[in-house]
Specification:
disordered C terminus; Rossmann fold; 10 strands; 38% helix; alpha/beta
Length: 259
């Protein structure tokens, strides 16, 4: 059974009291299997952010259906929706969204603490995920005491610690320098390959996208084309650039892209 199925998703903004309507998504379909690392790319206004908001239960589609692990999200509201989101989804945001009043260790523990897990389990799982992401030595630091890359790896650890069915990453390298971005993507790639984490990532960065196993390109709210990565990451990167060029819209600085 697929981890994620998005079926005929349509999202229209505006309507009844508005003279202007915008169709951000138009009968969009997407399936993500367990253990996939999928990237979503497209120019500004293509619908990729809307798609992530719908999949993350932040917004609801005008029509269509989303299933996570075979369960439809339709009809989930209030506490029921919050519980489903907390248990089945993990989020990595561009702006980290860490609590400055908590240490990195405490931030990472939050999802398990909300589930009422015993202290011993919190400690063991936090240490294990921090070690895999290379931040074990800074767990006692507060977010303002560490680098952007360390903050983002802590955010990734928080998203992964409760072993959700699906990780949703929104431009995770957007606020990182090239070295930190590469380190984060290598960590996510390793967690996907070795740990079986299922990841869906929205990104505008072709370098970050080249770490994915599959890229779904979106334009004007509809699928544009899809690429699958083989054994040659460099070749995959150049295929991504070719598709972005064919799509038009945003231009990409190749000097930056080769960072």
């Amino acid at each position: 059974m697929p981890v994620l199925q998005a079926q005929n998703l349509t999202k229209i903004y505006g309507g009844q009291r508005s003279a202007v309507t915008v169709k951000a998504l138009d009968s969009f379909n997407l399936t993500v299997e367990k253990g996939e690392f999928v990237g979503i790319m497209g120019p500004s206004g293509s619908g990729k952010t809307t798609l992530l908001q719908l999949l993350g239960t932040i917004d609801v589609p005008t029509s269509g259906e989303i299933l996570v692990g075979g369960q439809s999200l339709a009809g989930l509201k209030g506490d029921q929706l919050a519980l489903f989101r907390r248990r089945n989804l993990g989020f990595i945001f561009q702006d980290f969204n860490l609590l400055d009043s908590l240490t990195l260790k405490e931030n990472i523990m939050v999802p398990l603490a909300l589930e009422g897990k015993p202290a011993g389990e919190l400690e063991a799982r936090t240490q294990a995920i921090a070690k895999r992401l290379g931040i074990a030595e800074v767990l006692q630091h507060y977010p303002y005491q560490v680098s952007g890359g360390q903050k983002q790896r802590a955010a990734a650890a928080r998203a992964l610690i409760h072993e959700p069915a699906l990780i949703l990453a929104d431009e995770p390298t957007g606020n990182l320098d090239s070295k930190a971005a590469r380190s984060l993507m290598e960590s996510l790639e390793r967690l996907n390959a070795e740990g079986g984490a299922t990841i869906l990532m929205v990104t505008h960065d072709p370098v970050s996208a080249s770490y994915c196993k599959r890229i779904q390109f979106i334009k004007d709210g509809r699928p544009f084309t899809e690429l699958r990565r083989g054994s040659d990451q460099a070749a995959f990167f150049h295929q991504i650039l070719d598709v972005l060029s064919a799509m038009g819209g945003e231009s990409y600085d190749l000097t930056y892209a080769r960072r």
